[in-house]
Amino acid sequence: MSRNFMKKLSKTSSLHYAKLVFRSVLFLTALVIYLLDRLRAIPQHPIDGFARHPGLYLFIWVIFAVEMVLRFFPSGIESMGCQKQFPKNYQPAAAPAAARNDRRSLPAIAIAWIMLNGIIGVLYFTRLIDRSILLLICLAYSVCDMICILFFCPFQTWFMKNKCCVTCRIYNWDYAMMFTPLLFIPSLFNWSLLALAIALLIKWEWIYHRHPERFYEESNDALRCANCREHLCHHKKQLQELHRKLRLLRKEQAD
What we know:
By secondary structure, the chain is mostly helical. The protein contains 10 helices and no strands.
């Protein structure tokens, strides 16, 4: 990793890279355990999942429950993307302008997510996948969540068109989206995680309803690039620039 890269790696970026590594290891560990159980031909009813590994269940629950509980409170290291909801992070714009209209993109995102997880639900209830696969999908979503923040976000690129995560309208939808597959598995473990995630989502939407001015850079100076201290978009821009150069190079070679 280059020295220039490290200089531009803020505390918030470092936290998200650490989360990416940790969640990737957690997903791969769960995947290996699942595959080993299958290779050993351990009998497993589709609703049993990782019941033979209660320690793994408990570890996953504790990690994500703690993450979500902490998200309810202001933090000095979390991204402004989720922290802009709090009063202390609102700096009224000196010259407020009309905020962008992102209302149309929200139903499209919700419908796309419901359709994707609806397919997963059909696969589960027709027993083409089991409970363990649903948990693995949740862990895969958790890895994708970090990839969206650090490298490429389809919701940002294809739906929201916002410039960075700091200005993301749906930043705190992440856990609710992450644990959507748990809806199909009635249990205290699954539904308690999902309930925490939905509580976060409801709180976020309620604050947006009460104080929309906190969520847009046009009305909140804390969200402007000049005041940014986390530089989460830096790596996305590097990849976009690399992609642009590669595209130009291929075009020149083709000519």
